[in-house]
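Hi,

I'm pasting everything inline rather than attaching a file, because the server keeps stripping attachments. The sequence lines come first, and each chain or strand is labelled.
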Amino acid sequence: MTTLEFPAPPQRSRLSAFLGLALRRPAFLIGTGIIAASLLIALMPGLFAPYDPLAFDMGAIQQGPSLSHPFGTDGFGRDILSRVLWAYRVDMQMAFFATVFALMIGVTTGALVGYYGGIADMIFGRLVDAVITFPFLVLVIAIVAVLGPGLVNMYVAITAVNWVYYARLTRAEIMAQKAQDYAAAARVLGYSDGRIIFRHLLPNALGPVIVYWMTDMALAILLGSSLGYLGLGAQPPAAEWGVLIAEGRNFIMTAWWISLMPGLAIVLTGLGFSLMGDSLADLLRPKGR
Amino acid sequence: MPSLSYLLSRLLQIVPTFLLVMVFIFLFVRLLPGDPAIAMAEAKASDQQLVEIRERLGLNEPLPVQFGYFVRNTLTGDLGRSILMKRPVIEVIMERLPVTIYLSLYAVALSVLVAAPLALLAATRANSATDVAIRGVFQVGLSMPVFYIGLVLLTVLGAKLRLFPVGGYGRTFFANLYHLALPALSIALYTSAILMRNLRASLVEVLDAEFVQFARAKGLPRRVVLSRHVLRNALVSAVTLLGLSIGNLMSGTLVTETVFAVPGVGRLMLEAIFARDYPLIQGLTLTFAVIVSLTFLATDLVQSWLDPRLRQA
Amino acid sequence: MSDTKFEAADRPVMLEIRNLITSFGPPERPLVAVDRLSLKLRQGEILGLVGESGSGKSITLRSILGLIRPRGRVSGEILWKGRDLVPLSERALGDIRGKEIAMIFQEPMTSLNPLLPVGIQITENLAAHTDLDAASRRREAITLLDRVGIPGAAARLGDFPHEFSGGMRQRVMIAIALASRPALLLADEPTTALDVTIQDQILRLLQSLAGEFGMSVILVTHDMGVVAACCDNVAVMYGGRLCEIGSTDTVIERPAHPYTEGLLHSIPRGGAPRTPLYSIPGLPSGLADRPAACAFASRCPAATQLCRETLPLPTEVAAGRMLACHHPRRTAEELRHG
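And the predicted assembly:
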């Protein structure tokens, strides 16, 4: 005998309709294009970088942008474009690792708290209030101060704060889904709570969370590079955009390109993630307005 | 005006949240590996000094009692001694705080000046080429980290065009309008992007609202319709957003103070972290939390002053 | 019982609309919300403008005052006391809006500014259109609130809209509209959002105020019962076009357009007020796919090939009776003599 499965709102046909709509939006296409290209560079920087990012060239020190060095060279004659391309590795990692654990922890906690409510929900509410009372960056660098600077510690610090935001969002979505008829029906059919939460409610609640995740990856790059710049994130000689910018800080009067060129990569990638996030949000918004 | 009882109930709501904030900050030093007393003391502290610190923090007592000590010390303004500055933490913070507050208010004023007219322009011509262009530029602004905006401004306006000083802090109010122009602008360009986006959306909504159509149907002059009916209503959500962005704003000052060598509490926080000055880190974290809470409270009050519907809550 | 309420012909025409077209969207592919609408309104006349939602009746009202700008476009003529309002600038319209022609809206919840005390919302109208000083404006506001039946008017000027009930809010809106004694009141479904008992009070209030001030009214509604209760004449709209105009009594007694007949079936007669209404089968077509021929053809029991191919033009079938239909339910003879 097959078990009776209560039909959740159909997913597949919605997905194909959704893709049809998405592909007609320039913002979505541009955003996805930028992110796809960024991933490709992150996977194979050697393929795109014109020079060895670590090779000194004493004949080409602090040269401005030119045809042979589009982003110029730094104080050791290293090609900045190549360094920026190699840095995609660390920065794309940052976008992912600084957010994905927060996403997993936050979604699970938010789903449970939203479904069960009660005392846990009250405590969670206080926790949210307390966490948003700290400026995000202040809390993260305070935690980094305890753990010590470095990329992994930075991930831990960001996750420790950031999961709360995912949990808050998921909680609200789960509560909205819980109020709908199909959730009540699933309960009447006697399904276990775990099954109701994770098979029925969560798939329908995830849309806004995924949208937030996209924007959050943009924020993670901004935050990660800021911490790198401040000396609390990725540590030199690791190639990371914030670190690269910090390296050129002392030459900003004479060789501005060392600092300013790597920033273009931050802006472009951030733009990619937020275009993707915003157009997804538009597409997921209920029609009528 | 909001009633006194509203104010009191709002203050009471803050208490439990702030206790939890205190717990976080309290646990912060206790989570450090090793003896908290050593973390809170200078590197060459004598045994006598360590004993005093243990006494003051109640380290020989159980954790809940220690927390009681911490709350008591904090409420009496005793935040310990800064290792870096060799002075009481509260003194150091109070000295640097005005700079940061000045910078933040300056940044808020600039971002309103930038965002409000552009939002109005974009909203009254929703989906026109002007609208799309304004939104596009701000979208790019949102993708720039504040420290990078700061460096670009510093290079272009400071170093190349020599319009503004590239750092430092002046002595008078007006001198600082000049000295802090670039740091304030760096923060403002980021926050105005958020503000403009939100303000445009709420303006579009309000412009479409029935009561605005009704105001037009009354034959009021356009100026009155816009100021009394449209802007006032859009302002409610803008104030909320500005209030909620205080965290962003503080994060922004932390970074720009570093970029432009402004002697505020943000830069102090970084100095403290690199010097492992835990009493100072603790005090600063608390200070930031207080600023944010007070801003949230002020936001609520302004909101209830603007919106009579919120006054009964 | 014919023509007891309103002696039409001897009153001056206040408003004459000729070939009004209101459209939205890109000019090369316009969405036409109101299509070649023409009607006349005399002094003191209460005209009911009836139709389903989406029939263009609200848009017609908003077109008169130019409120659909800047998004919508208006062409044709809207002659107010002989002067065409269509080409007027926003500023020039400001002298007519609220002063000579006032308007009230459907949703008293959303049509009053939630952040301002109602007193200001009344006096700002007086400030814009009269020379009264602040004290007299305040006195006038109290008189107005009193007149529309708000108890303790003087004490309520400082209250905010959310402190009034729905019916009271609608009274406030009427007071605001009447502040500068307009000659024409455009009422956009003023009772739809209200409870049945309150609806009746508001309608009676409107009727008595119209009589008192000698004011003309265009009352937009989707409810034939409302028309029967208080209108002198009625104009029926479907799909952005006029189907039929005539005096209320004759149209209700002898509807000629199949759509009017359908609408009349939906009035609950004598039965309990909550009995399910008769509804015309099918749905009105959307703005984008409105046919060039008769818009009602797809739902009309009498429709023929002719209706699906040619647009029926409005013709005067009897004195004060206009009809746009290829297959009227009554002969011209019946319409003339009854």
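The longest helix of chain B spans residues 89-124.

If the labels don't parse on your end, tell me and I'll reformat.
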